[in-house]
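Single Protein Entry

Contents — chain, fold
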Amino acid sequence: MADAKQQRKPFFLHYNSQAVHIPHTPRSFSWGRRVFNTTASRHLDMAVELDMQVGLLHGSMSGSDLFIFTSDNGGLGLSRDVGHSSQGPIDSGVKGSALEGGHKIPLIVSWPNGPFKTGVFPQLASQLDLFELFRAMLDLPFDAEQGRDSAPGLYRVLVEGPEARPHRNLLLTQAKCPGSIRPTPTALKAARGAAADAAAEEGQAAVDGLLVSYDTEAYVAAVEVVHT
């Protein structure tokens, strides 16, 4: 990355941190700062290290560089006994769950010199949409055979701001759990097997026979754009 920036060449860096994935083995010190035993759990010690890693990477970027921070699943919920929630205000579900805490993830975008509006965006989005976001940024021709699951329009949403018309109106999630369908940012319906079939006839959804449908004010925006 340093060589590319020195030569003023475009670069792409995909960094997968070991934090905060299990096993939680925080280092004693990272970059001169103590990490181990600085919080109430080893899980949170790893969150401290992740924060340091993100800060170092973001701090090395210029205003012309696009920086995206995201995760591949909801939080583990391992530090609830010490008063910490990986899901923030969301109190339903953890990693592997069909509920909101299982699939709600951070998506933070920083591009100081770019055209994106600053703010918290309530529109529904998926990591799959990054394919179309990059295509639009690079002004590449649209190919219907490529990125079929990537909904076009996220670039427009980020340029127009939090009040923009949503580009995606449906999100399907699957894991080691019942699948879930999210038709809007504040509505979740989950289903599995015969219970799903029976509920579908009633125009509803179910998880193991238990109806699930919530409209929660605790929903936190899927996309946040920062210019810092």
